[in-house]
Design goal:
The protein contains 6 helices and 18 strands. The chain is α/β, with parallel strands linked by helices. The strands form 3 sheets. Strands 7-6-5-3-2-1-16-17 form an 8-stranded mixed beta sheet, with helices on one face. It has an 8-stranded mixed beta sheet with strand order 15-13-12-11-10-9-8-18, with helices on one face. The chain has a two-stranded antiparallel sheet with strand order 4-14.
Length: about 325
């Protein structure tokens, strides 16, 4: 059954965001088939059929960076008719490779709003670490797709933009820290316990990051993998599962009133109502339905009145992608 949504977004898979404007328009980092890191990683949860259908109906695909849990060549193969949007990374290696393979690829101008539909515009920010984040304006609400990037000089700029919005969501990696640099042994060959073994309360880190950026909502993101290869399955012990995340205080509000929402959600923008996608496993339901009824403190966001132009001849602040 096709997903019908006037305007809103869904999060599925590992770092996959689906944005809707009278139908699916944009999908980010679609890892929808195959494994990553030479078979070491698999997806921790299957993507429901209706969200998979929405991914296939999107016109645009944005890729944040070259790690295979974000740029999945096997997944891109089944999406090869889509328009691929890339950060403006130095060297353009991904752009060149995809062009040579026959994909329709566009590089997004850095820190420039680009219209994808009547009510969706995006701003891509690349950094020298060859990572990138994506800001998505969904009919006057802001999504900050931080995926697993770290601040490389762009945070202050992003925080200024967040302050312009009534309603904002931060989509960011969260967890115990199992995904990177944990395979160490001492001189005798005994494994050294990684930082992830401490299982530091996830909720505290989420609260700190959400308050730092100043968004109203936090969505766990870019964290949903499992270890499956014979020589890496030992790391499963340190993976952040939804059950462990709940037990380490992922729930609740921060002191300033921000709220954490569970992953794999369908967010219908209008009344800001969050409901778990019907086909998602019950283990994904980290929080109950979320509504915002209190008066919001921030001024109304006014859409940009900058002059529109084509992608290739855009002005310094706004561009319009050719459709």
């Amino acid at each position: 059954m096709a997903v019908t949504m006037d305007v809103g977004f869904e999060t599925v898979g590992n770092a996959t965001l689906i944005c809707h404007d009278r139908g699916p328009v944009l999908v980010t980092d679609p890892w929808i088939s195959g494994s990553a890191y030479f078979g070491s990683w698999g997806r921790s949860h299957e993507i429901p059929a209706e969200q998979m259908d929405a991914i296939h109906r999107c016109k645009f695909v944005w890729l944040s960076h070259g790690h295979p849990d974000h740029l999945s060549s096997e997944s891109l193969h089944v999406l090869r008719t889509k328009t691929i949007l890339l950060p403006d990374h130095v060297g353009g290696r991904i752009f060149t490779s995809l062009k040579e393979q026959g994909y329709d690829v566009h590089i997004l101008k850095d820190r420039v709003w680009t219209d994808l539909s009547d009510r969706i515009k995006i701003m891509c920010i690349a950094d020298y670490f060859q990572d990138a984040i994506l800001l998505v304006d969904l009919n006057g609400r802001l999504l900050v797709n931080k995926n697993d990037a770290n601040d490389r000089g762009w945070k202050r700029f992003v925080k200024r933009i967040i302050k312009q919005y009534h309603v904002s969501f931060l989509l960011s990696l969260s967890g115990f820290g199992d995904a990177d640099m944990i395979n160490f042994v001492d001189e005798g060959g005994t494994r050294i316990l990684p930082y992830a073994a401490r299982k530091y309360p996830v909720g505290r880190a989420i609260a700190a990051e959400t308050e730092d950026f100043g968004t109203l909502f936090f969505v766990p993101f870019s964290s949903f993998h499992k270890y499956q290869r014979k020589d890496s399955v030992w790391a499963e012990e340190y993976r952040t599962t939804p059950r462990l995340a709940r037990s380490t205080n992922i729930r609740g509000r921060t002191a300033s009133g921000q709220r954490s929402i569970g992953p794999h959600r369908r967010i219908i923008l209008g009344d800001i109502i969050c409901s778990r996608a019907r086909s998602c496993p019950p283990s994904y339901a980290m929080t109950a339905s979320v509504t915002r009824s209190r008066k919001l403190r921030r001024p109304n966001h006014q859409p940009s009145s900058s002059t529109q132009s084509t992608l290739t001849t855009s002005g310094p602040s706004h561009s319009k992608l050719l459709t």
